[in-house]
Design a protein that fits this description.
The structure is a homodimer. By secondary structure, chain A is of the alpha/beta class. Chain A has helices at residues 34-46, 77-84, 104-117, 132-135, 146-164, 222-231, 242-258, 280-291, 296-306, 332-345, 349-359, 369-381, 397-412, 425-429, 437-448, and strands at 6-10, 51-54, 92-98, 122-127, 172-175, 180-182, 192-193, 198-199, 214-217, 234-237, 267-277, 363-368, 387-390. In chain A, 40% of the residues lie in helices and 14% in strands. Chains A, B: FMN binds at residues 56, 96, 146, 150, 221.
């Protein structure tokens, strides 16, 4: 089959752009409106998106109390997605959850539940939850350092996968006549004892419909890339230009091969924030309209928040340059990206936050449907992307524009599906269902007999 | 308004009776069927139940690997209830969650999310999660002892409530014109630092629709009663006869008054397992039919599991008495209850598990709708109950019987609603919406000026 673009939809109810909630066409209470999230999910499904994706914070986040920010409060992602599952039929749900502040048993369980409830449409975006603000909600003064967080993440992901495999697919017999509900030979303790966790198992949920919910990762640091190459099946990433995306793409695919994995089974999906118009001028007008709605204090808080509270630029002149500051244990990749954008464009603080406010570091495309499709096609055909995570700057308008204008253009070019290929997220992404090692070893034993 | 009976529906998809899944009318895969849980929720709502209630374990539980047990694997309750919320309009959802193995921030957040998603229909059944089997899924060899679990539970509940109150009800301004999204004066750190938790806050979810999801408790030990008197608004409890239920009811109401709380705002709801027929003989036949379906090894595993793994009676003759065993740090109230039933009826092991299998220690009523209503009315009018948690022994049959036969009888007697009184669980239960202490202190200050 011809290789086609995969699409995620990043749809925080309050919108991606920091001023999205002030847009005349956006509901100001979208972040906490279930009805609005339902509308977004249905639109994404109409657009044949692979998945609805939600980031997550375990604190109010983004610079604290000042200013206006629709992302400051919303729904816990798995709870929200569970509620959206029965209202949709094909759309996948990729929820972010933390390896630093959640236990493997609890996490494995809620994602397995979501996968069953949605008939195989769950994905887990693995994050290590940077920031001291979050640490202080979980009995700590400071976050664990970067390397520790990633060591814990590796062990956590392995433990969660082992729990998902603790029941074999055919463990349940449910024979009313004999009273045998399950086959004790097909349920397994995992007996995990590691540096960070001790978990006996088995899980109290049957093996997920997809075997494992799709494992997603987004870190771009060295530790993040290592974790992604080891365990991720979808990688979200942020790049400002083709060359940067290509470097990342080629590096990850090489690491995946070095791990003995199949590179086609690791999909790299850069974030893209599209402003789409019937003409380029119309698209530009949409961009300008949103930019004008940014309050300066919100812009400054955004930069600070994105860098994990490590870029404190309050007090510096808005029309001067970004001050230098030391690298910390915060979100290294984000700090570097912000600095790179400022240097590349020689931006003042104001220009920087205006640029970043659009898509928080992701690639922004302003143009007609043809122009947007051209850009996506270029990245897709030149080792920069297997698909894209679409971050509509405001909602529902920019999502509707993408679905109504860009999706048909991609379909005309044969670059995107015209109907869902399968029932599960994994089937639509073209990812294999993980084999269960317990089942494999039983089959090998039987074959050897 | 006349005092009326409140009703919870305890509906594990696999059924309450240990052999429920073998019933010819029950789906053998009900425990993991979302479609079946949806049917149950809709039936409970048709019956005007206040809430759908789910217990929970953080391990496969109930005696390990032997035998057939539909409760061994299912959905995580909050995830399941979130999915049921958009498919229902009035039914409340009381989910069990652990103060021993979950963090206050995470727990506060998922229940606040469920409360928003369901428009105010969430309840939290507070449990301390007994058993070493569970401890071993969470980095421990043994469970914390009983007193420690309860001390942690008290601090946990207080912390969760403080997080729910960290945003005042009117904190969100969402003024598109000025760009003010919220009022910084109306969001508060909680700055909790206690023996078990340190949580700064605020929560990243707005204050729940109900102020607080309804807080439910079920412990019957001394520690459990103290916790319930301090913080519970609904108390589930297990009693085999009127005198025992009365003792509990009077004791709790006295403790509630001693805490300075209003006794009418703490609803005591004993569990009842009804076998209902058009005649008593028909009801009796339903009881016998289920009892015949119990496999002996399942009955033994059930007794052991109910006592938290502390009543190991494997190897003892089934037609002999229950052996004596030392009281342990397990679920004290359950062990005592099992012993009490055995002594009271002079039961053999087989007779004991047949009795317990029906409702796992709850009160069983076998009779016509009139007889069942008579029993409920007697308890309701004699300081034994403010309502009942109905545990249909098999599903959907015993739930349908209750809704179709007993509910109309209770309505005829004026003992039960004929339509939901309100929109939220709290409104239907007749419980006040908790005031926010931050809002109260602001009002007092303003009044004093």
């Amino acid at each position: 089959m011809t290789r086609q673009i995969k699409l995620g939809a990043f749809l925080p109810g309050g919108g991606q752009h920091i001023a999205a909630w002030r847009h005349p066409g956006s509901p100001a209470d979208g972040a906490t409106s279930f009805a609005f999230h339902t509308e977004l999910a249905r639109t994404a499904e109409r657009g044949l998106f692979d998945a609805y994706f939600l980031a997550d914070n375990l604190s109010v986040g983004l610079g604290g109390r000042e200013g206006g920010n629709a992302k400051i409060a919303g729904f816990e992602p798995v709870t929200l997605f569970a509620a959206l599952a029965p209202l949709t039929t094909h759309l996948g749900f990729i929820a972010t959850a933390s390896t630093t502040y959640e236990e493997p048993y609890t996490l494995a369980r809620k994602f397995a539940s979501l996968d069953h409830l949605s008939n195989g449409r769950a994905g887990w975006n693995v994050v290590t939850s940077a920031g001291d603000e979050t640490a202080r909600n979980f009995n700590r003064n400071k976050q664990p350092d970067h390397a520790d967080r990633y060591a814990r993440a590796r062990e956590h992901v392995d433990t969660v996968k082992a729990l998902w495999d603790s029941w074999e697919d055919d463990a349940f017999i449910r024979d009313k006549q004999t009273g045998r509900f399950y086959d004790p030979a097909k349920v397994h303790d995992i007996d995990h004892k590691g540096a960070h966790f001790a978990v006996k198992g088995p899980l109290n949920v049957p093996r997920p419909v997809q075997g494992h919910p799709v494992v997603v990762q987004a870190g771009q640091s060295e530790d993040g890339r290592r974790l992604a190459a080891l365990s991720a099946e979808v990688i979200f990433t942020a790049h400002q230009n083709l060359a940067s995306a290509q470097e990342f793409y080629r590096d990850i695919k090489a690491r995946v091969i070095a791990e003995g994995r199949v590179p086609e089974h690791v999909l790299i999906m850069p974030g893209v924030a599209p402003f789409v118009g019937r003409t380029e001028a119309e698209a530009r007008a949409k961009y300008d309209k949103l930019t004008e709605l940014i309050l300066p204090e919100d812009g400054v808080a955004l930069l600070n928040g994105l860098a994990g509270g490590t870029l404190d630029i309050r007090g510096y002149p808005l029309d001067g340059p970004l001050p230098k500051s030391a690298e910390t244990e915060g979100m290294k990749s984000r700090q570097a990206l912000i600095r790179q954008i400022a240097d590349e464009h020689n931006f003042t603080i104001r220009e920087l936050y205006q640029w970043i406010a659009t898509a928080r570091g992701h690639y922004t495309i302003v143009g007609s449907a043809t122009q947007v499709a051209d850009q996506l096609e270029e990245w897709f055909h030149n080792e920069a992307a297997d698909g894209f995570n679409i971050l509509p700057p405001w909602l529902p308008g920019a999502l509707n524009d993408f679905v109504d204008l860009v999706v048909p253009e991609l379909q005309r070019r044969g670059l995107f599906r015209t109907a869902y290929e399968g029932r599960t997220l994994r089937e639509n992404l073209g990812l294999p269902r993980p084999v269960n090692p317990w089942t494999v070893s039983r089959s090998s034993l039987q074959a050897a007999e």
